[in-house]
Design goal:
Elements (H helix, E strand, L loop, with lengths): L28 E2 L14 E12 L2 E10 L4 E8 L6 E2 L6 E2 L11 E9 L2 E9 L3 E8 L5 E3 L8 E6 L8 E7 L10 E6 L6 E7 L9 E4 L4 E3 L2 E12 L2 E11 L7 E4 L10 H4 L7 E9 L4 E8 L3 E8 H10 L3
Parallel strand pairs: 6-10
Antiparallel strand pairs: 1-22, 2-3, 3-4, 4-5, 7-8, 8-9, 9-10, 11-12, 12-13, 13-14, 15-17, 16-17, 17-18, 18-19, 20-21, 21-22
The structure holds beta-D-mannopyranose (BMA).
Length: about 325
């Protein structure tokens, strides 16, 4: 298939995929067998949601947010040959760290996984005197190393770019408060070494409608010929509480704090039962997006209602046309 918009990166011929249902008009469509991971996949899981997936060897590796029946929150490794059927480990990922202070973590949730050069980085919301951005890495998904927290509390939704820009690592994040944060904009921070972060830049803030309360970066940005493609969540405050939807933006390739386009409408919002009913109703929350440059296919993994993991699909040229034609 010839694409006018190109995704940069490695081919992924075995990307999970299902064609758009006949008659369905939306630019993003759901997998017909959603949710792909039920809340009780593990004997003592209360819920499994907001999770990250990445190609590894001939299949896929996932880092899953598992909230236990004790309501401890942690991140667990999973494996899959097709990206849809998963085996998830009962025990959380154990990190190796040089300084015991680095290992202090009251909870871990909402992981993202990003490959930079030959290393897989895991970024998560880390409980260290309040929520902040935890960071670790692995090269083989056997030994995991934890680094210093990237930021001071309070911050949520950290995600790295999949390559360095001008030699620097870049991280998007959403400074927050210690609770259910009724505000929040996306910022970019830069680091020469993944320990010291600075040159913090404002990227984008809340606007109206589905993104009127707070926004946060989702999966690692995808490099395309039109800019970095960023999926993000946006929150509306209704008379019944928060509603989490998904939007998309295109960021400048060299100066990614500059927004080129950003969707006025959402591209996915909670409408199916597994998105509207669960521990936290009315939430779709993306943490990973697989992509195949050869076909332009994108598979988005998202949490439904803070309870299950679901999958949705789009194709890059249609999505980017949609973003441009429906930009703020
Ligand atoms: C956010 C995070 C997410 C969650 C969302 C909706 O603050 O805690 O993990 O999906 O709220 O409850």
């Amino acid at each position: 298939m010839v694409q006018s918009v190109k995704i940069l990166g490695e081919s992924l011929a075995n990307i999970p995929w299902e064609d758009r249902p006949t008659g369905y008009k939306g630019v993003v469509w759901r997998y017909s067998q959603n949710p792909i991971i039920p809340r009780d996949l593990l004997p003592d899981s209360n819920s499994i949601f907001n999770s990250a997936v990445i190609p590894y060897e001939n299949g896929f590796i996932g880092v899953f947010r598992v909230d236990k029946t004790s309501r401890e929150m942690n991140i667990h490794l999973g494996k899959s040959s097709d990206g849809i059927n998963w085996e998830i480990e009962d025990d959380p990922i154990e990190f190796i760290y040089e300084d015991e202070e680095v290992g202090k973590s009251w909870y871990k949730y909402d992981p993202r996984v990003v490959k930079i050069e030959d290393t897989y980085y895991i970024i998560w919301c880390n409980g260290y005197h309040g929520p902040t951005i935890g960071l670790g890495y692995t090269r083989d998904f056997k030994k995991f190393y934890q680094l210093e927290n990237a930021f001071l509390p309070f911050n949520r939704n950290g995600v790295l770019f999949p390559r360095r820009i001008k030699g620097k690592y870049l991280m998007l994040s959403r400074p927050s408060d210690n609770g259910h944060t009724p505000f929040g904009d996306i910022f970019l921070s830069e680091s020469p070494d993944l320990t010291y972060w600075g040159r913090h830049r404002f990227v984008m803030g809340t606007t109206a409608g589905w993104q009127n309360t707070k926004i946060g970066p989702g999966p690692a940005p995808i490099e395309t010929s039109e800019g970095w493609l960023l999926f993000y969540h946006g929150v509306l405050t209704s008379c019944n509480g928060f509603v989490y939807s998904i939007g998309a933006a295109l960021l400048d390739l060299d100066e990614p704090w500059k927004i080129k386009y950003r969707t006025r409408p959402y591209i996915l919002s909670p409408q199916k039962e597994y998105e509207c009913v669960g521990d936290v109703p009315n939430v779709v929350f993306p943490c990973a997006a697989l992509h195949d440059p050869d076909t332009g296919r994108i598979a988005i993994y998202y949490g439904g209602a803070d309870t299950v993991v679901a999958l949705a699909f789009t194709v890059v040229d249609e999505l980017i046309e949609f973003i441009k034609n429906n930009s703020l």
